């Protein structure tokens, strides 16, 4: 998952920045506007660095308010310029504006995602509607929009250079989508809706976080049957961190839930852990999100109706690769039948093993992972815990560096401790340079471990993106994960899926580091394209050089045996029914929520009835049930865009086949150069569909995805 960078703040609602975590203590100080650290220009090496080690929460509210006031003043100066509007005096000036606020939002992002506290969440709730107001004042500034429109219309007569034309097109489209053409009354209501939504998004996000914090299952020594030793040690530390020494904590996050459901022999505990996780935001208490969803959907629908659209999805997808909800639905519906058919096969295999063992059960959702693991062992003689012995986090990081060196010519070197300020002792930093020239490209921050005060999941972000229109900038890119921190002296061993996710998020970081654009707006992403590059990078985990040199046993240092590698590759399509169906159910529900009259929606029954109509198997649920579907309801980044992961995966599967067909395979030099030139370096400077055609020589084909997942291919394209 990619976080949005600060530069595009005037295009965003407050909710883009909302993410929260568990409470931790925070020292409070006060300061005046003139010496507020969060507003100050970054100093030190590497073109200046955020002072993460000195940031104080007491500075945040004032910094946000001052930063917004400052940016609005800059925007007003642009809008009131008496000279005729040009690209230089309007668009370039907009690109330059907002630097102070960008810096504040960088710190804000750390608190919201990595270092949250109850005190921060109070500020977050108070500031969300104010940030929404600020955003509306820019997108609804009539004088500003008239200047943008004039530049846009002039460019239609006399086209600008390609990158400038792309910037103008993106900015003009975003302003029109944000209501710039509305009359005064409609603009007022549009802005009011945005403010109401910002409050609801904050509430939704914080409710999910509350349920993650409040539901922890504590185990005793006699309840550990089946759990790997590494999990037991990590669970003991998690319990100790929560003042429960001598017990073992299963926290209400995916990184803790997933392995527990896979390995625990205690069926009643599996059910309890499963229900805790999938009931987040749906417990009928003060943290229940059902009403938030109802209000969000109604407000979104009203807002796009002001703009003349039939539904929210129609409005949202117009500037995405899919273009229309129908195109997105067609893609998902092409895969759905094969996915649920495969689930039936998987359940039959699991039920057979349960029956053979005399377990006297019918497979339920909390059994799926557990019996799937038994099927994996029976069918492929593949033990996931055995695989983990060869997947050390540190060695995986070295493998990612190797791949980046081969494809991007990047070199990574650890930065001396203390040279770069960090916000937590777990964070480490590497210097990224060009292997040939030695030129500095950027810094890469890694924050790998789960902890109180950090949101769940994995994501990538930038503290500073590359641009060259005011001089080349050093990129500050970050990867953030939630691996369970091991007991002292123990290695961090992860699952194959988690290793793929690690590579995935590093793909986002490489996309940031490889950027070669002039203007900040061109670093923005197209949501159903931006996951493609990172999904593609996952493929290098299973390449021979990585397996032979970096997937080594944590005790012996011996490389993964050839027979185990063969088993992994043979099982590559195993459990694809589960993986595809749980994902697609969420993506389809996202689209149905936003193409249905919201007056007809009561979330709990709508989710249940819609999935029943789709033929959703009883043995599993949506990956993200509605009440904790943060991608869609804690902001707008992925709303009606969750399908984008599969849209991007169509590109991924097709591009992977290009590498498989190349003379040098995944390390083919010519193809790697095209990968960087057309798919990574341009960011959003080229229309994504055209960029892909430049790389592949044609459009992507869905048949590659079906082959990848082991599904039948029934209608090959010519």
- The CATH architecture classification of the domain at 6-196 is Orthogonal Bundle
Number of helical regions? 27
In angstroms, what is the radius of gyration? 25 Å
Major sheet attributes: 5 strands, mixed
> Do you know the CATH topology of the domain at 6-196?
Neurolysin, domain 3
Outline type: globular
* Low-pLDDT sequence parts: 3-32
- What is the beta-strand fraction? 5-15%
| Number of E strands | 7
Keywords: Hydrolase, Metal-binding, Metalloprotease, Protease, Zinc
Family: Belongs to the peptidase M3 family.
Protein name: oligopeptidase A
Cofactor: Zn(2+)
What are the main properties of this structure?
MetalloPept_cat_dom_sf; 7 strands; 5-stranded mixed β-sheet; Neurolysin/TOP_dom2; two-stranded antiparallel sheet; metalloendopeptidase activity; mainly alpha; Pept_M3A_M3B; Neurolysin, domain 3
């Amino acid at each position: 998952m990619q976080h949005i960078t600060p530069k595009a703040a005037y295009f965003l609602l407050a909710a883009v920045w909302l993410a929260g975590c568990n409470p931790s203590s925070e020292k409070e100080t006060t300061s005046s506007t003139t010496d507020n650290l969060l507003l100050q220009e970054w100093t030190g090496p590497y073109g200046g660095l955020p002072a993460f080690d000195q940031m104080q929460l007491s500075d945040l509210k004032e910094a946000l308010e001052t930063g917004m006031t400052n940016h609005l003043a800059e925007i007003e100066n642009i809008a009131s310029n008496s000279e005729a509007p040009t690209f230089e005096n309007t668009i370039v000036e907009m690109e330059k504006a907002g630097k102070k606020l960008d810096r504040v939002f960088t710190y804000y992002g750390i608190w919201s995602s990595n270092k949250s506290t109850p005190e921060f969440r109070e500020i977050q709730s108070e500031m969300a509607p104010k940030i929404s107001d600020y955003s509306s004042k820019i997108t609804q500034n009539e004088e500003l929009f008239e200047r943008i429109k004039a530049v846009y219309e002039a460019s239609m007569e006399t086209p600008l250079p390609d990158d400038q034309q792309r910037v103008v097109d993106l900015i003009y489209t975003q302003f029109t989508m944000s209501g710039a053409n509305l009359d005064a009354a409609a603009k007022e209501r549009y802005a009011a809706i945005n403010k109401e939504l910002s409050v609801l998004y904050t509430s939704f996000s914080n409710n999910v976080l509350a349920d993650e914090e409040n539901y922890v299952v504590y185990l005793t020594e006699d309840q550990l049957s089946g759990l790997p030793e590494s999990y037991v040690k990590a669970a003991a530390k998690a319990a100790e961190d929560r003042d429960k020494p001598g017990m073992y904590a299963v926290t209400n996050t995916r990184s803790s839930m997933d392995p527990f459901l896979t390995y625990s022999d205690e069926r009643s505990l599996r059910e309890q852990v499963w229900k805790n996780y999938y009931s987040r935001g749906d417990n009928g208490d003060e943290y229940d999100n059902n009403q938030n969803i109802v209000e969000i959907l109604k407000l979104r629908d009203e807002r796009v109706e002001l703009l003349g659209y039939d539904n929210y999805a129609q409005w949202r997808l117009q500037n995405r690769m899919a273009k229309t909800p129908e195109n997105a639905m067609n893609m998902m519906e092409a895969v759905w039948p094969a996915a649920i058919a495969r689930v039936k096969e998987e359940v039959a295999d699991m039920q057979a093993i349960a029956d053979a063992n005399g377990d006297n059960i019918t497979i339920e959702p909390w059994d799926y992972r557990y019996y799937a693991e038994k099927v994996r062992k029976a069918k492929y003689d593949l033990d996931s815990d055995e695989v983990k012995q060869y997947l050390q986090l540190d060695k995986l990081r070295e493998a990612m560096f190797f791949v980046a060196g081969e494809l991007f010519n990047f070199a990574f070197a650890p930065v001396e401790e203390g040279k770069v300020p960090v916000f937590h002792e777990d964070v480490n930093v590497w210097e990224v340079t060009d292997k040939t020239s030695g030129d500095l490209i950027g810094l890469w921050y890694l924050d790998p471990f789960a902890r109180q005060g950090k949101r769940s999941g994995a994501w990538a972000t930038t503290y500073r993106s590359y641009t060259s229109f005011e001089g080349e900038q050093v990129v500050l890119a970050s990867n953030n994960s939630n691996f369970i921190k091991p007991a002292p002296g123990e290695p961090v061993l992860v699952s194959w899926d988690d290793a793929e996710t690690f590579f995935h998020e590093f793909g986002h970081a490489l996309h940031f580091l490889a950027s070669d654009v002039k203007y900040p707006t061109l670093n923005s992403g197209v949501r159903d394209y931006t996951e493609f590059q990172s999904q593609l990078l996952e493929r290098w985990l299973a390449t021979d050089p990585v397996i032979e040199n970096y997937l080594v046993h944590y005790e012996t240092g011996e490389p993964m045996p050839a027979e185990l590698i063969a088993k992994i590759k043979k099982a590559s399509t195993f459990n694809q029914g589960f993986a595809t169906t749980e994902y697609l159910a969420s993506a389809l529900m996202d689209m149905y929520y936003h193409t249905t009259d919201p007056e007809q929606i009561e979330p709990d029954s709508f989710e249940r009835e819609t999935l029943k109509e789709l033929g959703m198997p009883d043995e599993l649920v949506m990956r993200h049930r509605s009440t904790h579907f943060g991608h869609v309801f804690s902001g707008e980044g992925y709303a009606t865009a969750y399908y984008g992961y599969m849209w991007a995966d169509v590109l991924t599967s097709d591009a992977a086949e290009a590498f498989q067909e190349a003379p040098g395979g995944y390390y083919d030099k010519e193809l790697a150069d095209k990968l960087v030139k057309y798919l990574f370096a341009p960011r959003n400077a080229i229309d994504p569909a055209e960029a892909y055609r430049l790389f592949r020589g044609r459009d992507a084909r869905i048949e590659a995805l079906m082959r990848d997942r082991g599904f039948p291919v029934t209608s090959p394209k010519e």
